[in-house]
Amino acid sequence: MTRNFLNLRNYGYKDLNHWMEKQTYLAVGLTMMAAAELGNEATPLEATFV
């Protein structure tokens, strides 16, 4: 099922990289919320790799 989903994103919609980027942002956001609950401040940084 996962392979079919990724194939659909990669070959059907051709947006697999965009989808994976958004999934990463979700994980980073939840990690930052958990850090805030523990009293640690965090700031997301974004970099472009070529």
From TrEMBL:
It comes from the Bacteria. Gene3D superfamilies: NADH Oxidase. InterPro entries: Nitroreductase-like. This is Transposase. The lineage of its organism: Bacteria, Bacillati, Actinomycetota, Actinomycetes, Kitasatosporales.
